[in-house]
Amino acid sequence: MISHSTPPPETDEMPPEMDEMPLSDDVLREILLRVPPLPTQLIRAAAVCRRWRRIAAEPGFQRRYRAHHGEPPLLGFFVNPRGREPLFRATLDAPDRVPPERFSLRLHDDTELGGNWYYHGCRHGRLLLLNWKSGLGCRQILIWDPVSGDLIHLSLPPQLDALKRVFFQATVICAATTAAGDHVHGDNCKSNPFKVVLVGTDRSTAFAFVYSSETGDWGDHAAETPVGNCISLGCRCIQIGDFLYWMLFGYDNNILEFDLVNQSLSVVYVPTHIHEDHDGLYPITLQEGTELGLIVMSRSCMQIWQWMIDFDGLPGWLPLEPIYLDNLLHLSAGECVNPTKVLGFSQDYNELFVASSTRIFMVNLESLQFKELCKMDEFLESPDSRPIYAVYPFASFYDAEWLNLSSAGLARWRAHPFSVAAVDAASTGRPPESGSQLG
């Protein structure tokens, strides 16, 4: 006996979309809230149907999404190759790998300043650049949001007119307090007011100036403290609560501390025996960002010291277990010809960026897992070019603007592999550039 299946009756009604399933908006928000904060993940979920996209694009949901995840993803790092435009390199793999051209900053002499722009700080979704010109020194400050593209130009503190031959470093921070523990960096840092801290030294005295975006000026108070025979300040700044730290280099190598609340400077002294014959000194944070640490490099040996207060209330430095990077990173003999360098440190992720003679790695200080990021020769124009000495890790949420893609934009995105480059192409209506990593 042969049975024939009866075809379904013809109807003009389409099958129900997923957004017509019996799932309340509140439950759906809780589901979407747990989507990982990587660049393409939320827009992938938003592309399921119109209802999911509407909820994911709600400003209130986006604020909750950032607050729920707390720390934004580490997208990559910025670097200033000698004599070239600032560059970006991604740390994430495809499809979340951000193409370098997405964070391209074109700053030529059309600013009427001339000179060169150099990164000096990167924190809370913003970067700070200083404009330097030979013989004139620092002449202007630029605050840049790479995701939105917003640029803010700042003039220098008027108090600098009275100072001569001062070497400067600077950083930008979210103005919301961290001491109370009720502020989640990465949630709404970029919508909050910000502060710029400019520190400098004339070899005997350190100075600090603070700019507030709320008042629009540098204030009348300039902090200062004696620092002995200080030749220069390190370019790397770390933040622990309401304190900022820079290395002081000179006859004595110590650490400069700036108190954001009291707007005062002081020196954390480092005994000479800790850094005798060193190949590099780098301040870091330990104990999940709550304690001050110091890396002392000797060839490929990385000795970490922790600043602690003992039971008698006396401060001092405690050595931790050394890390031998040549063994950890499986470096060849040729890569150890020059001392291994520490290029940068991501406080939020406890990731250290280190460089051998030929490669750049990212090393997690807790797990000691590492990842090769790129080759050093990517930043060299010729064999005589100087290698880079610092990178600035960049962490930020990177999906809100994509949720506003038009239906045509979503269609263009689906036509390519689901990647950062494809979404950028969909938002502009242009195909991805040749060479873009689409995964």
UniProtKB/TrEMBL annotation:
It comes from the Eukaryota. Residues 10-21 have a biased composition (Acidic residues). Residues 1-21 are annotated as: Disordered. Gene3D superfamilies: 1.20.1280.50. InterPro entries: F-box-like_dom_sf, F-box_dom. Residues 23-65 form the F-box domain. This is F-box domain-containing protein.
